[in-house]
Write a structure and sequence with these properties.
alpha+beta, about 30% helix, about 20% strand
C-alpha cells in the first residue's frame, strides 16, 4: 500500500500550472484537504521554485477511515494509545531550498479541558482552541470531534489536533496559513465525520 510520491506542483496540460486533475495521490490528498485554490496561493508565497509532494501519501478516504477507526478502541484514562501517533497527510517543499509546508493530524494526548487550561492556547469561536508559535508560522488547532461508535467520553477526552507549519519562508502570509489550517480542520470534520458538528471558522 505504501506509495512514495515526489511530484512537481504544476500540471503539464494547463499553461498556468494549476491543473492537477491527473496528479498523483499526493496532490489529490493536498487539494482535497486544503482546497486547490489555497494550494495555488501557497505556491505563490514560496517565491521561486516549484512545490513538490515530499511525503508518502494515501487517499483521503483511506486516511480518514483509519483515524476514525483508531479512536473506537480508546477508553478514558488510557495512556500510550496508538491514537497519539501523528500522521502527515500533506508535506510540500521546494527541493534544495529548505522551503517547506507541513501538516500533521493526530488525536490529542490531552483532553479538551486540559488544553483550555494550558498557557498559550486561545479560543477561536466556540469549537476550537489554537496555539500560535514561531511568529505565527506554526499553528496547532484542537477541537472536539465525536466519532460514531466511540465511547461517550471521547468527544472531550480525545479531541482532534491539526497542525500546519511553514519553514524557511520568513515573509509567508500568516493569514493564508490561518486559512489553510481552518480548511484542514473543516474538511476533516466533514470527512471523518465529526458527529457533533463542530463550527469551525473559515480562517484562524
Amino acid at each position: 500500500m505504501a506509495l512514495a510520491v515526489l511530484s512537481a506542483c504544476s500540471g503539464s496540460e494547463d499553461e498556468d500550472g494549476k491543473d492537477r486533475s491527473d496528479a498523483p495521490i499526493g496532490w489529490s490528498t493536498c487539494n482535497a484537504l486544503f482546497g486547490a485554490a489555497r494550494i495555488d496561493a501557497l505556491q505563490g508565497e514560496t517565491g521561486e521554485g516549484t512545490l513538490a509532494v515530499l511525503n508518502q501519501t494515501f487517499p483521503v478516504d483511506e486516511m480518514t477511515s483509519g483515524w476514525a477507526s483508531e479512536v473506537k478502541s480508546w477508553e478514558p484514562g488510557e495512556i500510550g494509545h496508538a491514537a497519539y501517533s501523528r500522521s502527515t497527510p500533506c508535506d510540500l517543499g521546494i527541493d534544495g531550498t529548505g522551503k517547506r509546508f507541513q501538516s500533521h493530524v493526530s488525536w490529542s494526548r490531552y483532553s479538551f479541558e486540559d488544553i483550555k487550561s494550558q498557557e498559550g492556547w486561545k479560543p477561536e469561536g466556540s469549537a476550537l482552541y489554537v496555539l500560535r508559535e514561531d511568529a505565527g508560522l506554526h499553528l496547532t488547532a484542537v477541537f472536539r470531534c465525536k466519532i460514531e461508535g466511540s465511547r461517550q467520553e471521547q468527544e472531550l477526552g480525545l479531541p482532534l489536533k491539526v497542525e500546519t507549519r511553514v519553514t524557511n519562508i520568513p515573509d509567508f502570509d500568516t493569514k493564508l496559513l490561518g486559512e489553510l489550517t481552518a480548511g484542514l480542520a473543516r474538511n476533516l470534520a466533514k470527512r471523518l465525520p465529526c458527529t457533533n458538528g463542530p463550527e469551525i471558522p473559515s480562517t484562524l
